[in-house]
Design a protein that fits this description.
three-stranded antiparallel beta sheet, mainly beta, four-stranded mixed beta sheet, Immunoglobulin-like
């Protein structure tokens, strides 16, 4: 599943993906990362809050699209990924 949103060049804020609905009972997130199509759009490291992986995003060039891949490994050795697509406008 992919998610999509728009932002302006100036804006900086946190986005997150909640993995609760895809985890089995008792399963937890043991490792996580966010991979960006352009690292200049990430501000700092990803953070895990409960079952939600969060990443602060920033910058980007107007009229350009970027992808953030939220990846987790679970206590059951499952690997899950959700993509978030962002388009920047002025």
């Amino acid at each position: 599943m992919s998610f999509y949103f728009q932002k302006q060049v100036y804006e900086e804020f946190v986005i997150g993906v909640d993995f609760t609905d895809v985890l089995t009972t008792g399963e937890t997130i043991s490792a996580y990362s966010v991979v960006a199509s352009d690292d200049t759009t990430k501000d700092g490291a990803a953070v895990l809050s409960s079952n939600t992986v969060q990443q602060k995003i920033k910058a980007g060039l107007a009229n350009k699209s970027y992808t953030f891949s939220f990846r987790v490994t679970t206590s059951a050795a499952n690997k899950l990924e959700e993509d978030v697509k962002m388009t920047v406008f002025e």
